[in-house]
Amino acid sequence: MKYERQLTTGLFQSSSWWSFSATSSAAESAAAATATLAIASAIVTAKIKQYKKVNKKDN
What we know:
By secondary structure, the protein is mainly alpha-helical. It has a domain at about 25-59. It is built from two helices and no strands. The chain has helices at about 1-20, 25-59.
């Protein structure tokens, strides 16, 4: 749980940075934030699966 919470917190911090970064329009900003979130959530999902596999091996 602690591991997942750290990942999620990091994900929201990075997505906020992207959405507030300077872009020429609100639509571009939203698209950049959406793309960043999609990529970040895919990475987080993969890392959580990997982490759970490692934990199962330890048990």
